[in-house]
Specification:
- There is one protein chain.
- By secondary structure, the protein is mostly helical.
- It is built from three helices and no strands.
- It has helices spanning 6-16, 22-48, 69-77.
- The longest helix is centred in the middle third of the chain and has 27 residues, at 22-48.
- It is elongated.
Amino acid sequence: MALGDPIDRLKMHLIGLQEWSDAQHEALEQELKEEVRAAVRAGEAIGSLGKSKPSTREMFEDVYKYPDWRILEQRRELGI
């Protein structure tokens, strides 16, 4: 990371205060990488790898609390 990076500056500040360490940082970084990889695998399993295909109706769910006219129009165009 560049020294101007806010995360790097915070890391160095916390290490200076002896509230953090390089080992803790590396462990957290590895944990977060694994979490992201798991999320990517879960997302790919839903459809991009062809294992399943959500219905077209699901595409419009949870986009907005109340669908606006654009969502309603897109649903109408798809016959949903």
